[in-house]
Specification:
alpha+beta, CNF1/YfiH-like putative cysteine hydrolases, 6-stranded mixed sheet, 7 helices, binds zinc ion
Length: about 280
């Protein structure tokens, strides 16, 4: 495991599973959360990565088993876990009451205030965000790749938290997990220009040396601009700062590994505190 550039996150080990957590979240009563890694399946053989996404090369039974193990390591109930069919959209789903049946809808953010349920997004380069509101106990999980960032999925989630749960953005805590960083995120001019148009002069990309017409995009920086514009205080944004593509011994990276890449989960939920 690599050292983290910031100490706002902890690398934990629970029931044989390593996972990262954000210290600021750990102080909130009843709140459980974590960002998984690719390791944890038995003896950590590369051929048996700890995959938490329903990929073509893995079996649903094994993914289900891994998901239950991860929730158990986070001290969350093994069920129910709510996820989405992620489609790089700006669609936010709000779970207001316990669904009797959950057929994962298309979307890229989940939001709830119900105790005893867990919500999660999966990723393998795109940035996962977990959001906690210490005042209203609302929690959110957001999947934001370049398309979702341009569509402002994170800002849309915060707006929903304001509208539905009366959250004050100034009080929200945001944890940004592992994802592809500017060191490895080479994009074409069409993507660069979209970001440049959206945030002129923000310096979100630099020309890739040796690759004419290519740019290195800083997705995390774009997300922080979006979060601050949505009213989140800069000191409440915690970025793990780790690149998935640089660290394929720890994380899955679709850019580095292609279709054989697994998926990690960013999970958040609140335990039942009783009457
Ligand atoms: Zn990198």
């Amino acid at each position: 495991m690599v050292c983290m550039p910031e100490s706002a996150f902890t690398l934990n080990q629970s029931r044989g599973l390593p996972f990262y957590s954000c210290r600021a979240f750990e102080e909130l009563p009843g709140l459980r959360h974590g960002f998984s890694t690719r390791t944890g399946d038995g003896d950590n053989r590369p051929s048996r990565p700890f995959n938490l996404g329903y990929t073509e090369w893995d079996t649903a039974g094994r993914v289900d088993r891994n998901r239950r193990r991860f929730l158990s390591a986070l001290s969350l109930p093994e069920n129910p876990l709510f996820t989405l069919r992620q489609v790089h959209s700006n669609r936010v789903h709000i779970i207001k009451e316990m669904p009797a049946f959950w057929n994962p809808p298309e979307g890229d953010a989940l939001l709830t205030r119900i105790e005893g349920v867990s919500i999660a997004v999966q990723s393998a380069d795109c940035l996962p965000l977990l959001i906690a509101d210490p005042q209203t106990n609302a929690v959110a999980a957001v999947h934001s790749g370049w398309r979702g960032t341009l569509l402002q999925i994170a800002a849309g989630t915060i707006l929903s938290m304001k509208e539905v749960f009366r959250s004050d953005p100034k009080c929200l805590l945001v944890a940004m997990g592992p994802g592809i960083r500017s060191c490895c995120y080479e994009v074409g001019p069409e993507v660069f220009y979209l970001f440049d148009q959206k945030h002129p002069g923000a310096g979100l990309a630099v020309a890739a040396s040796g690759h004419p017409g290519k740019f290195h995009l800083d997705l995390a920086k774009a997300l922080k601009i979006e979060l601050r514009a949505a009213g989140v205080e800069p000191q409440n944004i915690y970025d793990i700062g780790l690149c998935t593509c640089c660290n394929t011994d720890i994380f899955f990276s679709h850019r580095a590994e292609g279709a054989r890449s697994g998926r990690m989960l960013a999970v958040i939920g609140r335990t039942e505190t009783g009457p």
